[in-house]
Amino acid sequence: MEEKLKRLHEEAHKSLAEARTMDELNEIRVRILGKKGELTQILRGMGGLSSEERPRIGQVANEVRDAIEGELAVRTAGLKELLKEQKLREEGIDITLPGTPVLRGRKHPLTIVREEIQDIFLGLGFSIAEGPEVETDYYNFEALNLPKDHPARDMQDTFFISPETLLRTHTSPVQVRTMEKTAPELPVKIIVPGKVYRRDDDATHSPMFNQVEGLAVDRRITFSDLKGTLDLFARLMFGMKTRTRFRPSFFPFTEPSAEVDISCVICGGDGCRVCSHTGWLEILGSGMVHPRVLEVSGYNSEEVTGFAFGMGVERITMLKYGIDDMRLLFDNDLRFLQQF
């Protein structure tokens, strides 16, 4: 029996050395050390041994069991490490390869330009005011000297929700709302950025677009203050060499009124296709606040004056970056947006 135990140990040692997988090691463990294993079968024959041989054979059997279990543990640990190294080699990452780029968001060009406009006027002492996009007919038209059936309303054909409620066509209603709240206190210096809505849809117009309007009300404000403010804005926005031109125009809520042009951002005023060879590009409308608008808002038009202006953020953005189709600003095309 002692010889059987020694042979079993030798066979187990050889089998463990040749095993290459965890499954093979498990098979060896079950075949030798399991409940029906070879070692168990040998030990069952100890009942036929004499009382003198039984302790000695039992000790040898325990030594063989311990030796096999020890070798099995060592071989198992070694094989696990070997398999781990093999897996790492097969699944290893080549750190010399360039990494996968992470797509990062960035500001939309409209946001960039709107914030730049805001920063310029905040630096000139203006504050930012906001108001509702769903507006009443009174604030959107009547309080701005546009009574019902006035032909000038046709310029701002819009989306009506009810006969007296509509999506605002400009941010000017916020000017009236602000003056109502502050009258008779002075001065009033605000800009009003926000979305507005009109029934337009082509390469240069959108049914929804962004405006920034401005208002300054105080004693002794003149048209020269308006010209100086907008001339400085144009130079800060488009470059210090930019020139401005004021052309007479008509807006019901200002008198006198003027369209403001800048020297062409492409040709510098020499004349090109972008400016239709005139050397000028229109950027905004402006004027002195109409006395009736001041009176409706709670100010005495004999004592105070003011100026107002309004610009489309999309138009300023298109001129600043040379964009020829407004719809590009709303297409969510990453190829376009990644340029800014």
UniProtKB/TrEMBL annotation:
<feature type="binding site">
    <location>
        <position position="255"/>
    </location>
    <ligand>
        <name>Mg(2+)</name>
    </ligand>
</feature>
<keyword id="KW-0436">Ligase</keyword>
<keyword id="KW-0479">Metal-binding</keyword>
<dbReference type="GO" id="GO:0005524">
    <property type="term" value="F:ATP binding"/>
</dbReference>
<keyword id="KW-0067">ATP-binding</keyword>
<keyword id="KW-0030">Aminoacyl-tRNA synthetase</keyword>
<dbReference type="InterPro" id="IPR002319">
    <property type="entry name" value="Phenylalanyl-tRNA_Synthase"/>
</dbReference>
<dbReference type="InterPro" id="IPR004188">
    <property type="entry name" value="Phe-tRNA_ligase_II_N"/>
</dbReference>
<keyword id="KW-0648">Protein biosynthesis</keyword>
<dbReference type="InterPro" id="IPR045864">
    <property type="entry name" value="aa-tRNA-synth_II/BPL/LPL"/>
</dbReference>
<dbReference type="GO" id="GO:0006432">
    <property type="term" value="P:phenylalanyl-tRNA aminoacylation"/>
</dbReference>
<dbReference type="Pfam" id="PF01409">
    <property type="entry name" value="tRNA-synt_2d"/>
</dbReference>
<dbReference type="GO" id="GO:0016740">
    <property type="term" value="F:transferase activity"/>
</dbReference>
<feature type="domain" description="Aminoacyl-transfer RNA synthetases class-II family profile">
    <location>
        <begin position="113"/>
        <end position="319"/>
    </location>
</feature>
<comment type="similarity">
    <text>Belongs to the class-II aminoacyl-tRNA synthetase family. Phe-tRNA synthetase alpha subunit type 1 subfamily.</text>
</comment>
<protein>
    <recommendedName>
        <fullName>Phenylalanine--tRNA ligase alpha subunit</fullName>
        <ecNumber>6.1.1.20</ecNumber>
    </recommendedName>
</protein>
<dbReference type="InterPro" id="IPR006195">
    <property type="entry name" value="aa-tRNA-synth_II"/>
</dbReference>
<keyword id="KW-0460">Magnesium</keyword>
<dbReference type="Pfam" id="PF02912">
    <property type="entry name" value="Phe_tRNA-synt_N"/>
</dbReference>
<dbReference type="GO" id="GO:0140096">
    <property type="term" value="F:catalytic activity, acting on a protein"/>
</dbReference>
<keyword id="KW-0547">Nucleotide-binding</keyword>
<comment type="subunit">
    <text>Tetramer of two alpha and two beta subunits.</text>
</comment>
<dbReference type="GO" id="GO:0005737">
    <property type="term" value="C:cytoplasm"/>
</dbReference>
<dbReference type="InterPro" id="IPR010978">
    <property type="entry name" value="tRNA-bd_arm"/>
</dbReference>
<dbReference type="GO" id="GO:0000049">
    <property type="term" value="F:tRNA binding"/>
</dbReference>
<keyword id="KW-0963">Cytoplasm</keyword>
<dbReference type="GO" id="GO:0004826">
    <property type="term" value="F:phenylalanine-tRNA ligase activity"/>
</dbReference>
<dbReference type="InterPro" id="IPR004529">
    <property type="entry name" value="Phe-tRNA-synth_IIc_asu"/>
</dbReference>
<dbReference type="GO" id="GO:0000287">
    <property type="term" value="F:magnesium ion binding"/>
</dbReference>
<dbReference type="InterPro" id="IPR022911">
    <property type="entry name" value="Phe_tRNA_ligase_alpha1_bac"/>
</dbReference>
